[in-house]
């Protein structure tokens, strides 16, 4: 073999080795990139522990305030309204004077009725012994007795009419709009009452709940007095508390609901007839309830579930939710307490994903849940 041929062979071999080496490096780099693409860092998540604590069993509704006792003040006699003893919107007490209707005509009628009665009674008394001796016929005496009875009835009616000229409040309550001012003629036939008085302390709140809750409410009501908490219509704030005092005896067939009424002391008069309020019927307190933040609950084909973190890896845990109170869910099955649950679930979350815990936020949630 010539020297030229040997040189060509060695050159070809060198080129071949270079090609193989280049291919190996490319393959190695590709495998490295592949490995790095599948070794994504663990996902950082916010978690909380499933906690065991006491939780209320309650029903929420929107109710309307109504006075327990409303009185429309209507005159019982006709006459000129001489005096008004209160200002509209004023709180009045039972027995407090409200109005005076001109008593002069009725006092004159009373004086006349008294005179007529005295004359009739005197006549009957005079004829009684005469009738016994036969000097006056029995028919004449009976007529005198009847006249005395009639004039006595007229006297009593005159006394009542004089009493009607002074109108007093029959209840403690708050007066409304004054419909008629002094100087006007009033009459029992007037369509509008002189004033309306609403009892404010205590006061009622009426509301409706679905008929499906009736058996449970009746059960607890038979065991103890059910407390009712009143808030603003949107559920914020505290407007007072009282007790359930009425359950209607009929289900509304149009709405499938039952009417309830709660009595609230309303000592500071925070509740006003006609306004809408939030109603929380507290049936009982459940001890040792398993609770989680309601934000952790996810929905799937098999129902509700949560992502539980075990040894730094997520897994699906199916649960049954009994109720949600505020932002806390009461779990009736699937958790026993102490499990670490993802509370803010990323859209990319999947079972079997490695995760790290966002400790500051998670710890804050756990501390809140344990209260």
Brief characterization of the structure:
The chain is an alpha+beta fold and 371 residues long. It is built from five helices and 22 strands.
Molecular structure report:
Helices cover 31% and strands 38% of the residues. It has 371 residues and is α+β, with helices and mostly antiparallel strands. The model is unreliable at 1-10, 17-21, 32-37 and 360-371 (pLDDT under 50). It folds into 4 domains: 43-55 and 288-369, conserved putative lor/sdh protein from methanococcus maripaludis s2 fold (Beta Barrel); 59-68 and 200-286, Elongation Factor Tu (Ef-tu), domain 3 (Beta Barrel), CATH 2.40.30; 72-102 and 165-198, OB fold (Dihydrolipoamide Acetyltransferase, E2P); 103-163, Orthogonal Bundle (Helix Hairpins). It has 5 helices and 22 strands.
């Amino acid at each position: 073999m010539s020297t030229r041929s040997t040189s060509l062979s060695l050159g070809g071999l060198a080129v071949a080795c270079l090609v193989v080496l280049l291919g190996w490096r490319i393959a190695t780099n590709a495998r490295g990139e592949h490995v790095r693409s599948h070794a994504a860092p663990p996902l950082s998540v916010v978690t909380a522990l499933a906690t065991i604590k006491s939780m209320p069993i309650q029903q929420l509704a929107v109710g309307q305030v109504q006075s327990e006792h409303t009185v429309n003040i209507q005159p019982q006699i006709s006459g000129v309204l001489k005096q008004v003893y209160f200002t509209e919107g004023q709180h009045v007490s039972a027995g407090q004077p409200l109005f005076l209707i001109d008593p002069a005509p009725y006092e004159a009628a009373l004086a006349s009725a008294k005179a007529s009665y005295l004359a009739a009674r005197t006549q009957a008394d005079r004829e009684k012994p005469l009738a016994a001796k036969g000097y006056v016929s029995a028919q004449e005496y009976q007529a005198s007795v009847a006249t005395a009875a009639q004039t006595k009835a007229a006297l009593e009616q005159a006394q009542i009419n004089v009493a009607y000229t002074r109108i007093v409040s029959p209840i403690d309550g708050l007066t409304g709009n004054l419909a008629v001012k002094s100087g006007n003629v009033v009459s029992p036939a007037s369509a509008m009452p002189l004033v309306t008085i609403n009892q404010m302390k205590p006061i009622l709140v009426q509301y409706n709940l679905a008929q499906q809750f009736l058996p449970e409410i009746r059960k607890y009501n038979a065991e103890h007095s059910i407390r009712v908490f009143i808030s603003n219509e949107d559920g914020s704030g505290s407007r007072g508390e009282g007790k359930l005092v009425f359950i209607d005896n009929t289900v509304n067939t149009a709405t499938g609901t039952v009417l309830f009424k709660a009595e609230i002391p309303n000592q500071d008069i925070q509740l006003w007839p006609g306004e809408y309020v939030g109603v929380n019927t507290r049936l009982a307190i459940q001890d040792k309830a398993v609770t989680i933040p309601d934000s952790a609950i996810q929905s799937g084909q098999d129902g509700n579930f949560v992502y539980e973190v075990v040894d730094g890896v997520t897994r699906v845990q199916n649960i049954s939710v009994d109720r949600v109170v505020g932002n806390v869910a009461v779990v009736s099955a699937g958790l026993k307490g102490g499990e670490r649950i993802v509370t803010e679930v990323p859209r990319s979350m999947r079972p079997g994903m490695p995760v790290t815990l966002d400790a500051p936020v998670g710890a804050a949630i756990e501390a809140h849940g344990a209260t």
